[in-house]
Amino acid sequence: MLLQEPIAALKGFGPKTAEKFTKLGLYIVKDLLLYYPFRYEDFKSKSIFELVDGEKAVITGTLVTPANVQYYGFKRNRLSFKMKQGEAVIAVSFFNQPYLADKLELGKEVGVFGKWDAAKSAVTGMKILAQVEDDMQPVYHVAQGVSQTSLIKAIKSAFDSGALEELEENVPSILLEKYRLMGRQEAVRAMHFPKDLAEYKQALRRIKFEELFYFQLNLQVLKTENKAESNGLAIAYDGEKIRKKISSLPFTLTEAQESSLTEILEDLQSGRHMNRLLQGDVGSGKTIIASLAMYAAYTAGLQSALMVPTEILAQQHFESLLNLFPDLNVVLLTSGMKPVVKRAALSGIADGTVDMIVGTHSLIQDAVQYHKLGLVITDEQHRFGVNQRRIFREKGSNPDVLMMTATPIPRTLAITAFGEMDVSVIDQMPAGRKPIITRWVKHEQLETVLTWLQTELDKGAQAYVISPLIEESEALDLKNAVALHEELVAFFGDDCAIKLMHGRMKNDEKEQIMQDFKNKRSQILVSTTVIEVGVNVPDATVMIIMDADRFGLSQLHQLRGRVGRGSKQSYCILVANPKNEVGKRRMTAMCETTDGFVLAEEDLKMRGSGEIFGTRQSGIPEFQVADIVEDYNILEEARRVASQIVSDENWQTDPKWEVLTQNLDRHKELD
After folding, report:
1. Looking at per-residue confidence, does 69 or 607 come out higher?
2. Same fold, 239-426 and 437-593
3. Whole-model pTM?
């Protein structure tokens, strides 16, 4: 089959060229056909009167002045000329492309693709077009050694080889007709080489549906399998002991905490395998609910394990469980432990004298043998892939699984995105917690902010100061963390210890700096966004975020959640001079509410940043063309129809769904 042939087999391609394509994950001819452009440049000529300021467009006109090249600085130059479109004269500039002068002839028509500056009636050119006939040109993600031109050449070669005719339809005809979707071959061709924008949009709609539909079908099948699993543990916990423990707590559970706990306890008792996501805003009290679930397992004579991403968080949870259950045998398991302590912990886990285990990835190492593991909890679940969860299941006799995340996702989206899990939501804050006061200031007011910060530090407070970048970037003219650190040292002098933490540091170095901050060896921590989720520093009551408009709402909210962990009043100061309305709306939204769910909904509405509630962090899957937020309507319809299909027990033997069973396994890489 041509589709399965290596790229090197295509006409005009050899092994050396084909090797470069592997950087993009392209190995065989089929990969090329299914490697879609992420956008199109519209190369249809436009009148300058229909352009908006800053728009990229093709402008054609007659060259009315000769091309002039001015040199300045090392290897820097500017090519400029004027062209006439109708009665309008347009100034055109190209930077560092002097060779383009050879393509320009006085009095002849020229096509320029560039950025329009309405105030100056000028264009900053990007490309000179030999002829303006290609209305649309695909733009692909490329890698070093693979240019747009060479990629398009390879894709054209794949089409010319006739491989497209071998591509089989993977959406049942009943759905193609119902949703008026293009056939697969036609859609794949139109994704790369559409006749016009309308055809491309139809192709895009079809491919998005295909991606989201198979994603949902997999989730629904998984969910059905999980529900059907009678080989889960029926954990016969002691309800009376749990009630006593709850009444002995120094605070009252919120209604949202109680209902989440009830859902978890019902799952534990059911005998079906639990696969539940516990979702709650920063500080909403997820940890106490997880701890009570672990206690429930203990009352049934079973062990439970809590896995977290870092040693500092493991230590924090360990101390919290010790305080909560002083009579139980709780152990910590991390890679940094002394061998003698580790051996004792492993021995206790294996012989059953240990009741609860807290740790990092060490919990799933071969050396760990559990006596009777009944419940596994993972904190910030996105950090742990399917394989790690599978290892856990094999370590016990299919223990129940509870995952926790502090990324607030609108309930509807959570249910859709985590379709294979049941979702519990804690959307209330514990009583008595002071809301974090959030203020937005301009860069010019920074000195005033720092003077105010000095008074807070004098009262014993600690502060985080966040910078979005590690090093200078011309593209984003931001103050980097190093310069910011130096600036603060210069401002505060020897009055306080200021530490710097950034992503280039090794993990143990970062953990040491964080530990020092927690133990008040430093008063100010300057950091990029590597501050660990969930670390409690009770005296850290001030969060200053520089260039705050560069962050998405979710990231800002997560950062704000690092303060306000104690009983003292906390503050979050957003330093930003936003250049557009979306940036301003983000700043305003942050000042108006501290509710992560409200902000997540707002993020859904804005859809501005591409960083919708930290997609990459929150375990929400990413797709090649579909966007789980932008295409929410398609996602929801895909979920509905997939759920309907899977609800029929005999769907896998029904001829009308035959194509689905053939293709289902090929789409299984969800993690």
Report:
1. 69
2. yes
3. 0.60
